[in-house]
Structures
1.
Amino acid sequence: MKRIETLGLGLFCMASVLTGCAGGEKQANAEGAPCIFEKYERYLVQPRSYVAYRTEGALKIDGKLDESSWQKAKDTEAFEDISGAGFAEPKYKTTAKMLWDDDYLYVGAVLEEPNIDAKLTQRDTIIYYDNDFEVFIDPDSDGHNYFEIEVNAKNVLFDLMLDKPYRVGGDFFLQWDCPGIQSAIYIDGTLNNPKDTDKMWSVEMAIPRQALTLSFNNLLKAGNTWRINFSRVEWLKKPEENWVWNATGRIDMHMPDRWGYLHFSDNKVGTEETAMVYPHDMDIYKLMWAMFYAQQDYKNENGKFASLNELPGLSAEMKQKVSMEATTNTYEICAEVPAEGKVYVLNNEGYFKKEDKK
Ligand SMILES: [Ca+2]
Ligand SMILES: [Ca+2]
Ligand SMILES: [Ca+2]
Ligand SMILES: [Ca+2]
């Protein structure tokens, strides 16, 4: 849901390796502004990735990840604080796993927890008022029209669709109830009894591929790469902790450009490994998103978006890679990627698409 807080920038830019910021480029800008990659570093760290393999045999959606498919699937990296580098390590460990078949994306998660607690019982109440586990999915990676599913330890769901992120005025549609979803929780401990010490709770979800598309496109197929992220809200005290697979860089999960990359392999889990495939040229993508964050600041400070020459922190070399049309309230950044025969386009609403090169 809507948890947005702005962090000060600039404290975390030290001692970093910055593509394109080497040597004189740091001062390449006429005003001597810091390199755009340096200034927005915390929003530009390359996200983590995961290759999901096909299941072997059916999964029983009972919350237990004891099927051989789950045992063979690798854990994600342990979750980290949503704000990223420089913030405290989560107190309790969380990891997730993914699998797929022709009909479902499967998500499993294990949440270490000494006091398993869940009070909410109604679907589509604000589940993160309890401790919860959250899934965010943007199958076509365009940064708009994405899905959010939250669940507490009572297996009560909060599921919604968003047309675009809140940072660009997005709306959420709580009326969306993920059609055909199966979800279950396993508890190693006792629920709502704080007198003992629990071990963990685990989440097992089967999310139908047909629930995750707005068209007739089958996006759940081998070779495709989606954007996905997981979050765990933990109420140790107020405000809540937000522990996530991929740090977004600030307390805002609604930054689909900051989510992880999920690639689907045609191989059965536990057999031959498939190399990760990113769906775009990562250097160009990074440059375009750096410009997006710089434009947000520029608009806040100047009441209008910048032209390419006005945008601080771009080197001459960077400016050669992109073009930008900007008005007071809109802009569109374009970059040719000859290797793909495509033009990448990113606009002021964070909508990303690829067009065929004319
Ligand atoms: Ca199971
Ligand atoms: Ca989308
Ligand atoms: Ca719903
Ligand atoms: Ca307990």
Note: The pocket of calcium ion (ligand 4) is lined by residues 115-116, 189-190, 193, 196, 198 (CB under 6 Å).
2.
Amino acid sequence: MNTIAVVLVVVIMILAFIIIMYYNKHLEARSKVSHIPGIHQFQPIILKIPFLTSHINLKSPIYLQIYDLIRKHGRNGVMSISTWKTSSVAIFSPENIKHVMVKYAKDYPKPQEQVYEAFDIFGPNILTTNGDIWRKHRMLSNPAFNDDHIKLVSKVTNQTMVSVTKEYWSHDSFDCNVVEDMTKITLQIMGIAGFGRDMKALNEDQTYDRSKYTMTFREAISRAADEIIIARFRYPKWLLNSPLPYFKNCREVVRNADLYLDDIISTCINDSDPLSKNYDLLSLLVAAKDEENKTGLSRAEIKSDSFIFLVAGHETTASQLMWSLWLLAKHQDVQEKVRKEVNKVFGDREELVHEDYDGLQYLLCVVKESMRLFPPINGVVKVATKNDVLSGYKINKGTIIRVNFYAMQRDPEIWDRPEEFIPERFESSNADHVDPMSYIPFSIGTRKCIGFQFSLTESVFILAHILRCFHIDLTEEQKKSNFVPTPRQFITIKPKELNLQFNRIKDRS
Ligand code: HEM
């Protein structure tokens, strides 16, 4: 045998050994869940490879592929999924969700290493921790979302929207880039209500200190909250620390975000009475003290929690607004019905106040229905720490549980005409028909979103201002093509692109 043949045989043997090793790992993972109806593929969710990647790949948004698979293979609110070495079970029935998220929530913590560590850019925080550490973060953060703070959210949103509808959108008729503008608006509101700071999200900030920073506050924070978290999900740690230009740039973003957060926190901590000026989240977080031992969060904890408020708080609401605006443009009858309510509440005024929120009940139904069809976060992930039983199937310790809001919120067994946009189903006269366990865009149980009221208040006032000032329509091309936005799935699920026609309403009679 010549040398080439020997090398070839060795390479083939090594490859065969690696494949057998991988396949064994897959069989091990698969055996933990194979008794539950579902799908199994040897390949991880990467490229579509015939015979190997038979079910899920990166071709289209994974949540839609999983939804189709659930419709085909799911039984009694469960479906097993094993890909390469992970074994998981998707759950999507109110009974199973109540079991995992409420009744036995302590047996189903978050899988930190596998999923949540990517969010720990500035250290462990309220979103990513479990047990006593999480309890401390949550207890000290709860007061930050009190009534005084929600009133500030109302005020900041209304003031921002007066200026957006007059100055930022100064034209009478234009194609609105909804994805970009909703992200900017929610970031601007989060800057003031979250940090007492004008992030200049709507216009480029030219005034930042170039001797200290290499980018604006907005760029540093919004890139850290999106791009950097995604990079931490995708790439191993050693690559993130490598000298390759892309990763060097990522580290520069984190350095800037870190410096900005440090500066803002220092100003707040050095202020003897920050709450005399503002009820923003950061001031409330700095002021929070444990009743028993009078201690608060450390400086590092304040930094990591306030960063998480930014991550969790602006893109989620922005995604919800994007879907709501598209649905309103598509359903002109609903838009007109909301506008009637909005105009009645505004009367002759230009700006609303916190107390007006209660008068915008139909608009709130629109927001809720939009989140039923398009939950910005389509589910959460837990891990079983004990053997258990769900829908009569054994759940082995260590199994990843994927709580799927999207599938449950479109389940024809639960919802009448599930694929249709019908805000009326959330009206108080019909609300009895909605089982609270089957509608959970903000999650449920002790880990329910701490910012849900912040988000609802902000969304309702943003939409109220838009609908008072503009008629929203699909473009001619969208009307002809029966347009549905293509979703983009990263941290949230939002339209990849969405331009809608905005026409200013001049005659409100
Ligand atoms: C439409 C808007 C929003 C949606 C759909 C949403 C949804 C969610 C969901 C599903 C969770 C559970 C995540 C998990 O367990 O992994 C969550 C948690 C959280 N959300 Fe939201 N959220 C929204 C807005 C906000 C806002 C405005 C804030 C803050 C200002 C916020 C802050 C948080 C925090 C800190 C957590 C972690 C809570 C904990 O684990 O104790 N969210 N959110």
Note: The CA atoms of residues 46 and 58 lie 6 Å apart.
